[in-house]
Design a protein that fits this description.
alpha/beta; seven-stranded parallel β-sheet; 14% strand
Length: 256
């Protein structure tokens, strides 16, 4: 995608920026002129993202934060007094395993997923929204959710947390809309990486558009949703970027 300077002079915070979709969004925002605060628990990989951005002429800083802990989200925030954020993207999510099904997932695994995806996501957005309002910033927020917010797949901790994010988006959109702050969600389809093992479950021939998704597919739509040029009248909604896979209510995976 050729840069058109969509976000020149703006600032963004992206969680889960060390890999896959979060990384692609951070890089894409920087390529469009935004200064990006990259937040991830994996500092080594996160630092490489910030380095990639700066070597390409962009502006980025890497921040370590464990969003599964009660105070983790606070470490992600820039200090008070710094230039206010104009964009927030919550892409962080713990790795998920197919083995963590409804009858096997542990309490600790459930808590880590819920704390990262819902608790930290909400309280980060709440505080950033307060700062945006105080600064008079017409900000934008984007949560990376999932098709499994509505379609079960025997990964209940993940699906429940994504369903929770969907309602967080709606609540925040109502609360922050009068201040001109937009809040939306992006639900990826089958994108290799994270918890999706494309080698084990390659069903691209069953996807209407005939291929698996890429992190760049997600990033390009994220840019559109975050841009007032293309989405100024869009808030409180979830956009599925899935090649049409949801038309089949997801593809059943083979049983063990």
């Amino acid at each position: 995608m050729t840069s058109i300077g969509l976000f020149r002079g703006e600032t963004a915070l992206v969680t889960g920026s060390a890999s896959n979709i979060g990384r692609a969004i951070a890089v894409a925002l920087a390529s469009e002129g935004a200064a990006v605060r990259c937040v991830d628990i994996d500092m080594a990989r996160n630092a490489s993202v910030a380095e990639q951005i700066t070597k390409g002429g962009g502006t980025a800083e890497a921040v370590a934060a464990d969003l599964s802990t009660p105070d983790g989200w606070r470490a992600a925030l820039p200090a008070a007094g710094q230039p206010p954020l104009s964009m927030f993207v919550h892409s962080a999510s713990p790795p998920r395993r197919e083995a963590d099904g409804a009858l096997t997932v542990s309490e600790a695994t459930w808590d880590a997923m819920a704390n990262t995806n819902v608790r930290s996501g909400f309280f980060l957005a709440q505080e950033i929204g307060r700062r945006m309002k105080a600064a008079g910033t017409k900000g934008r927020m984007l949560f990376i959710t999932s098709l499994h917010a509505e379609t079960p797949r025997n990964i209940p901790h993940y699906a429940a947390s994504k369903a929770g994010q969907t309602m967080v988006v709606k609540e925040l959109a109502r609360a922050l809309g009068p201040a001109g702050i937009r809040v939306n969600a992006l639900a990826p389809g089958a994108v290799p990486g994270g918890g999706f093992n494309a080698a084990a479950f390659d069903f691209s021939d069953k996807i209407p558009l005939g291929r698996l998704g890429t992190a760049e597919d997600m990033a390009n739509t994220a840019l559109a949703l975050l841009s007032d040029r293309f989405s100024a009248y869009v808030t409180g909604t979830t956009v599925a970027v899935d090649g049409g896979i949801a038309l089949y209510n997801w593809i059943p995976l083979p049983r063990d």
